[in-house]
Amino acid sequence: MTNAQDSSVQPADGMELAEHGLVKPIAALVVWMQAKAEWRFPLIAFLAGALLTATFAPLSFFPAAIVAFPLMILLIDCAKSRQQAFAFGWWTGFGLFSIGLTWIGHSFTQQDNVPAILAPFAILILAGLMAVYIAAVFWISWRLWVKGPLRVLLFAAVWMLFEFARGYLFTGFPWHLAGTMWADWLPVAQLASAVSIYGLSALTVLSFSAFSLFLYKNLSVPVISAVVSMVVVFATGTLWGQMRLENNTTEYDLAVSLRLVQANVKQRDKWRSYLIDDHFDKHMKLSRGGNERGRAEGVKLLIWPETAVQRESFDREASLLRWRMSRMLEFGSYAITGAPRYSVTAEGASYYNSLFALNSRGQLYAKYDKKHLVPFGEYLPFRGLLKAIGLEQLTGGVAFTPGKVVETIHLPGVPSFSPLICYEVIFPGRVVSQEDRPEWLLNITNDGWFGLTNGPYQHLGLARFRAIEEGLPLVRSASTGVSAVIDSYGRTVSSLAVDQTGILDSPLPLPLDAPAYSTGFKMMITLLLTLFVAVAFLAPAIVNARRGAGGRAK
């Protein structure tokens, strides 16, 4: 085929591709796509991305990836120019994110200050921006394309570079990482403990992309060996994961009894001023568990979700709500809740999305301010510009201020824990302090924004990987579900489903020994390996370009 550096040279058409080894059904598909109707390639690209969304929770149908990733490689094969490769990649990404992030649209129906009619536009704009990452994967892969099994390695390496970019650039959004399709397949998910979620993503993309080699009739020994090798690697990893689960039962710290309160307060009603006291009373009633003395009897840690208290004065002296909450506690017990707070300085007032821990005397033992805020939901990027065009209301008129550092909270008589508010839990390698390792993870969240969509289930799946990576149990208190206690291997000990009202009582699972290498170190190794592979393909391309030699391989 043509030189990767010369976009004016056209590759073979569908019939020529068929003559060069595509199996008949795939050759027929290529011929159909290359017919005069220009919408066919974008349609197939969109469907490839949309199909990949079926691999994530709650469907978790990983066989869809066997079709999706080979289709992507076929599209790169068929691109006639770098511009066309970029376009195919953009449509693939648009299919992935416009279908995969539809749950975001539900949040627009839960607030009065933003019209619900904006939801489709917000999803399409976000999907269009996120699709640029996939477009870049296709464009770079096309420029460096090679023949045979090596193209699979190239594609996987470039894909991973942009998964890293998506997880870090512009505050980061590591949603729909390829490896997260295994959130409900725990034997495979165990691999994240050894290589991090990014390492698992790399193995996943490499393995499923290898099936693209079956699109060609000439199954040589190297081709068959490449596919078999990936199957063996994945099968071995899955077997190891299964043995890890079977040989390690969940152990508990029986001295630490948890009670998670899921009051199921609907987001549309959550901040209505005339209902705020009713919401607090509902949490109080559930917390008592029907106890005649009005106490949370036998509970060491009473845990309410994110912003369960909607009064900014919760941390002030003589707070009536804090006093009422403390009256339920036994001596030596604590309550943990999410609540907003504010501080006033000479520059003005700053608002924080915070977590508080208090004892049976109403004293605040600990406070944590959410560090990683949600763009547009909790703060407004480019606030000055958007205010000028009248869109400041996207954050409800008041933006939160971020906290400073990842913290470990120590309460007397309680194992130390790392507090994570809402989507802070989705960021691998950034959930624990390396200097002060906690003994468990606490994620308080409010997924009421997303109703009965895929969002709460995917959020839970991402949180599960943090437990597996860090070898720490995860306690998740969600306002409308899913609330759950997850052990250090990612197994759900107990849970409360979405849209249910109730309490969840459980002992605290024990942590594993600290891993020999941190999650961040494992992520760095994955990044360096993918960079090495990408550079290995890039160097010959640069040499060929300088020499004017070519031959973009088939």
Q: What is this entry, summarized?
A:
The protein has helices spanning 14-19, 24-33, 40-52, 64-78, 82-100, 119-143, 150-168, 186-189, 192-209, 221-246, 267-270, 276-288, 320-326, 383-388, 455-470, 519-547, and strands spanning 252-262, 301-303, 334-345, 348-359, 364-369, 409-411, 414-421, 440-445, 474-478, 483-486, 492-496, 502-509. The chain is elongated and about 80 Å long.
What does this protein structure show overall?
The structure is a single chain. The chain is α/β, with parallel strands linked by helices. The protein folds into 2 domains: 14-247 and 520-547, no CATH class; 252-371 and 406-509, 4-Layer Sandwich (Nitrilase/N-carbamoyl-D-aminoacid amidohydrolase), CATH 3.60.110. It is built from 16 helices and 12 strands. The protein has helices at 14-19, 24-33, 40-52, 64-78, 82-100, 119-143, 150-168, 186-189, 192-209, 221-246, 267-270, 276-288, 320-326, 383-388, 455-470, 519-547; strands at residues 252-262, 301-303, 334-345, 348-359, 364-369, 409-411, 414-421, 440-445, 474-478, 483-486, 492-496, 502-509. A 6-stranded mixed beta sheet has the order 5-4-3-2-1-12. A 6-stranded mixed beta sheet has the order 6-7-8-9-10-11, covered by helices on one side. A hairpin with a 5-residue loop joins strand 10 and strand 11 (492-496). Helix 3 (40-52) runs antiparallel to helix 4, helix 7 packs across helix 16 and helix 9 (192-209) crosses helix 15 (455-470). The longest helix has 29 residues, at 519-547. The chain starts with 13 loop residues before the first helix and ends in a 7-residue tail after the last helix. Mean pLDDT is 89; it is low at 1-15 and 549-554.
